[in-house]
Amino acid sequence: MLNLPKGLNSKTVEAISHYKNEPDWMRRFRLKALGLFLKKSMPLWGADLSGINLDDIYYYISPTDKKFKSWDEVPKQIKDTYDKIGIPEAEKKFLAGVGAMYDSEVIYHNLKKQWEDKGVIFVSIDTALKIYPDIFKQYFSTVISPDDNKFASLNSAVWSGGSFVYIPKGVHVDIPLQAYFRINAVSMGQFERTLIIAEEGSYLTYIEGCSAPIYSKDSLHAAVVEIIVKKGARVRYTTIQNWSSNVYNLVTKRAIVEEEGICEWVDGNLGSKVTMKYPSVYLKGKGSKGEILSLAFASRNQIQDAGGKAVHLAPYTSSTITSKSVSVHGGRTSYRGFVKINHGAKGSKSLVRCSALILDSVSRSDTYPTNVIEEEDVTLGHEATVSKIGEQQIFYLMSRGLNETQASSMIVNGFIEPVIKQLPLEYAVELNKLIDLSMEGSLG
């Protein structure tokens, strides 16, 4: 086991790489990324990040020095945490494979044999570096480089844990792979990295869940997700993040989509102190498609700065960005979107829809769209609405026997229904429960 002291410097990075017994090229990659991180300034747009004390964070905590293939082998104190969120039950019921990350390390990973026999790889990303070095090195950091932004640099320097998924040509994994990420230590930084490669004509659904307990000090979650969608392949990546209200959630997620490929992001954000997250699709191949469905729910002392990005690099590509946000108890939501259609991407289409629901007079919602069009033969649509729950709606529902809280929850659940219906049943039920809890007392 290795629990490093707080603070970030070259010794920290060297220690992580040494402990993981990494090849020298990865150690050098980490140190170069650290240099970039130290040179870059904090973002001056979006939420205020001045409250992050980078010297008061643990950049690596290992809960155990072992990995487990059987759930029965996992230490009791860790297993009890995950039993509460249903990993074994979920795995038995409907999942093709499960990974569980606790603080800085993936402590459990399992893939059903039927998918192993078809050549599917689903392991922790640390394991992939050791067992599949050629595939790993071919794709790692090719979608998001260390100099992309300050927190991508940070992740590149201290990354640990996360998933590696490889789907061979023509293989359809028609039941989900799933990963859980848990911050369980005070002042913890979690920096998982996920890499997904879907070869030509393949199909994958990947689901990610995140949580953390509430502590008196802030924690930091700065992940990187890279997806490569080859010709005619399709990947759906679903995230439900319910971080506690003391977590800064700063994530970079991007997919490269080749000819006739499809990438779908379904992104739900309920918890955290601050979230800044904009899943992106780079439509590189002719006829490729991207869809981003984003939900943000901000309650008391929360800022949800979310949205999506679509960059059209080839002809006849299409993208859809749908953003739904709800703010209550003084919470603040923002849609921050970017659509670019490059010169030569003729016949491309993009549609952006962002809708905000504000539940009281002290909450806030903002929209920051950016559209850059460099080609004439394209179609771009942008719709934005902001609304409040009307007294007549509440009165009508209460006249049918609902109390005020039930009535407002019903209206909110109807508003976010386009997101809910894209989730597996278990997640849809859980999301509705979490929103109902957040809604209590929302109308006075």
Summarize the amount of helix as a percent range. 10-25%
Taking the alpha carbons of the first and last residues, their distance comes to 50 Å
Compute the number of strand runs.
Answer: 22
> Oligomeric status of the shown chains?
single chain
Structural notes for this entry:
Helix content is 25%, strand content 36%. It is built from twelve helices and 22 strands. Helix 9 (391-399) crosses helix 10. The longest helix has 16 residues, at 24-39. It is globular and about 70 Å long. Mean pLDDT is 84; it is low at 91-97, 101-109 and 212-216.
Descriptive labels:
444 residues; alpha/beta; ten-stranded mixed beta sheet; 22 strands
Summarize the structure.
The protein has helices at 10-19, 24-39, 76-83, 87-94, 113-116, 125-131, 133-139, 150-158, 391-399, 404-415, 417-420, 425-439; strands spanning 97-102, 105-111, 121-124, 163-167, 177-182, 189-190, 193-198, 203-211, 219-221, 224-229, 234-242, 247-257, 262-269, 274-277, 280-283, 289-298, 303-312, 318-327, 332-341, 349-358, 364-373, 379-388. It has 444 residues and is an alpha/beta fold. The strands form two sheets. Strands 3, 4, 6, 7, 9, 10, 12, 14, 15, 17, 19 and 21 form a twelve-stranded mixed β-sheet that branches. It has a ten-stranded mixed β-sheet with strand order 2-1-5-8-11-13-16-18-20-22.
